[in-house]
Design goal:
The complex is a heterodimer of chains A (455) and B (326). The N and C termini of chain A lie far apart (70 Å). Chain A has an eight-stranded parallel beta sheet. In chain A, strands 13-15-14 form a three-stranded mixed beta sheet, sandwiched between helices. In chain A, strands 1-2 form a two-stranded antiparallel ribbon. Chain A has helices at 6-12, 26-34, 48-58, 105-116, 141-154, 166-176, 191-201, 213-226, 240-256, 278-294, 307-320, 353-366, 382-387, 393-402, 424-431, 445-454; strands spanning 64-67, 74-77, 94-100, 120-122, 125-127, 131-135, 159-162, 182-186, 205-208, 231-234, 267-268, 299-302, 333-337, 346-350, 370-375, 413-416, 434-437. Chain A folds into three domains: 6-58, 3-methyladenine DNA Glycosylase II, Chain A, domain 3; 64-320, Dihydropteroate synthase-like (TIM Barrel); 333-454, Rossmann fold. In chain A, α10 runs parallel beside α11 (307-320) and α12 crosses α16. Chain A is globular, with a radius of gyration of 27 Å. Chain A has 16 helices and 17 strands. Chain B has one domain: Alpha-Beta Barrel (TIM Barrel). Chain B is globular. Classes of the chains: A alpha/beta (455), B alpha/beta (326). Chains A and B meet through α9, α10, α11, α12 and α13 of A and α7, α9, α10 and α11 of B.
Chain lengths: 455, 326
Amino acid sequence: MRKLTPMQIYMLLPKTNCGECGFPTCLAFAFNVASGKANVFACPYLSDEAKRKLSEALAPPIKLVTIGVGSEAVKIGGERVIHRHEDKFYNPTAIAFAISDLLSEEELRKQIAAIENTKLERLEEILKPDLIALKGSSENPERFAKAVETILETTSLPIILCSFNPKVMEEGLKLCGSKRPLIYAATKDNLESMAKLAIEYDCPLAIYEPGRLESLAELVKKARNMGVKDLVLDVGFNDLRETLEKLVLLRHLAIGEEKREYGYPTITFPSLATTESDALADFWEVTVATSFMIRYASIIVLNSIKPWRILPLLILRQGIFRDPRIHPRVKPGLYAIGNVNEHSPCLVTSNYALTYFTVKSDIEASKVPSYLLVVDTGGLSVASAFAGGKFTAEKIAEAIEEHKIKEKVKHRTIIIPGLTAKISGKLEELTNWKVIVGPRDSSELRVFLRKISTT
Amino acid sequence: MGRWAGRIVEVKIGATKAEGGSRDKVIVVGGETDLPLFGSKEDLPNPPIISMDIFDCKIPLPKVLKTPFIEVLEDPAEWAKLCVNKYGADMISLHLVSTDPNVLDRSPKEAAKTVEEVLQAVKVPLIIGGSGNPEKDPKVFEEVAKVTEGERCLLSSATLDVYKEIAAAALIYGHNVVAFTPVDVNLAKHLNRLLMNMGLPPDKIVMDPTAASLGYGHEYSFSVIERIRLGGLQGDRDLQMPILVGVTNAWGAREAWLKDPSLGPREYRGPIWEAVTGITYMLAGADILMMMHPIAVSLVKRVINNVFRGEKTSIKEVYEWLKEVM
């Protein structure tokens, strides 16, 4: 049993009702731990025996593995469910970019800089790639070590060392072993030497086995018996469907059937996908990466960094790994943006957080101080809320009254999103306000607001 | 794995001459007994279908999306031909946007004429979309359903506000109905029940639970689609209808079309935005994808051909890849 009942947890607690965990009684605490709302280790008086039992019982069925050290360390795995609506996905798919040790030092630095400079702020989070995968293309230990040295000098991003040759791997580990790189990879042919390196340097180890999952499980058991604790699985990539089916099956075996030998994070290589035409190749790698991400890959390794290719993956990841129980929304109400006065224009939008932040930043860019009326659309964007009947003339009319805009501005004019032009007549009827249909996309607000503020 | 009690209903779209229509073939969607990739090939008897969107009048479209169709934007029949003959559309979704009183206010008769022209131009089954105007749509669907009697089209869409007239038109003239609801499993159930209460059988209903664009509520839509499909598989008869998604919505995301060199060329961004949006919904269980950009269509087709039809994809050996400098 991986899930403990409140009573099973209660029996392991000190039952003193000291309240130091933040809950009035041990029983209340136990209920909250069972439902995932409290961390059991908030109890300062757990016996060692209880600690052991609890961490075993409460450990996620897919092991949490850390690559790298310090603030840039990447956590993968630690997952508890098959579908995100059953709870949530815990640790976002890590995105790695591959570089080869055959590149000149200058070229290496250039590519690392390109990876480091790829950053995007969205919904108050910084989205960026996580890992550098160094390919031991040279098969030459010295050359590999030299490239590791360049990486260490240039970036603090964690590294995946890629070579099937233990001699090459060892030279790399000598330099960066203390930074917890991921060792890629052990195979049925080199398992023993790679596992020894993983133990010596205390690093996570990837196991590559493109055959049957049972063969992979055999290698996992061997590595575990040798003492390697943190493993990452590569089921191989000979065919898209086959790999996707294996990723799904791994998840099912680990979580649905609680088979520990399959309970590890996974690494995948969309970078191996090819097409018959070069025109499609760049698109295809992103397409393959999308399907791997949506079906449980913990790491995706990509070939080259280009903003248009990484952008959709970063945004897909941000959404899918968000807690589905928490809607990113802002409080409905009247927001003053900039130094407003009683003549400032008044705009209306939805309370989806992303919509709000986008419109707010576009108003700021216009340098026209404005009021922004945010109506409650249940956290849906304007387009979805409008289509679903949650962004209506009635609702806006109510919001105008509720948030007392008449007390803030002297004019009686409201600007609605261009997509919702159809409600303008009804809204004028309901409010006796003048309704101006604004642009379809808020990026055009800059020009739009300047124009209306000068007329 | 055969782990479910339920099976998704099969819906037939289009009718051949023998069946009273004029289509070359009938498209069947649904019939699943598991999610894609979770079960065996037998669990997915009918691969997902790509329907390409066309419009009956000029509408605001991003430049990159307009370019492939620039010659045909004002001729729905030619537009439909281009989609089928050049881009391999399985179906055409014709949106009668011009009928909206706030657009061109074209009459139901004019709209019906356009539909007939498209039916003559291509031989694939048709999805017919209204303008979304709740007063006008019922009149348009009544007329359009009548002139296409027997063609077994898919009328898009019935909503919680306007469903009676569309369901009636479908029943009388032998069409299917899309049940559109706003990202909500319970509302989807509710509308399906309302439609069935009117006498519309489940094998005449396709659900559209709202497909948000990547980055703009995409994860809600994704989870709602998964929940609807799992609900159906677990035996909830009100959720056992096939699912349709409007993937073209992806272009609503500013990242797809905004001129911003720091994000890379728009020529690439738009199509990949649509492809990523489509593929995620398809893997969550969507049966019909309404799409627009030819590159996005070809990418999704590649995935369909591999995942659902078993065509091999070409992949490099990891050992080879490791040796490559770039």
